[in-house]
Design goal:
globular; carbohydrate metabolism; single chain; 228 residues; EC 5.1.3.9; 8-stranded parallel barrel; alpha/beta; Putative N-acetylmannosamine-6-phosphate 2-epimerase
Length: 228
Amino acid sequence: MPTARADALLAGLRGRLVVSCQAPPGDPLRSPAHIAAIAASVCAGAPVAGVRIQGVEDIEAVRAVVDLPLIGLWKDGADGVYITPTAGHARAVARAGADVVAADATARPRPDGRPLAETIRAVHEAGKLFMADVATPEEGLQAAALGADLISTTLSGYTADSQGSPGPDLELVRALAPRVRVPVCAEGRLRTPQEARAALDAGAWAAVVGTAITAPAALATRFASALT
């Protein structure tokens, strides 16, 4: 991606909200048409900076109706490294229309045994930016050293090397933001507008929110639980 375009894309994300529009397996909303409708609704109804979309077909469907920056990924599997786990997955996400390709950048072994640097290189060769989904400060620093264009705290609490918490991992944001020269995005367990604001105050470049906005079942469960 040309430097001027990359700079403009990143500048457009700064201090703003990115909405993750996804649906888990078995959910009635799990179809490209539904995800595209959710993304279009979110983008039309709020001043969001971009969307994060899972799956090649969903990315293609959303790209057809949304002009904002699109962070794409491909979840393949359910254990270990499964977020865009190989360079081949990354190329497919890039071809589908993502502006930014997100991938697991943790220290865990990748399923094809290939290094993370190969995936980053494939994304750059496709003219896209690379977002490193990490769980620890060390992983974020390593990803930045390898050439990642953005870092996201997506996997904090989901690996053996990171501790989970009920809320967002703002300590990870604070640990990374001053130490890398690329944007650090807060993602994971951001449930309220106040927590999203706190993430920016902690040094996050942007706040990525999914379940709290685009998951009706989870929202209904929260309300029902409060009533009972």
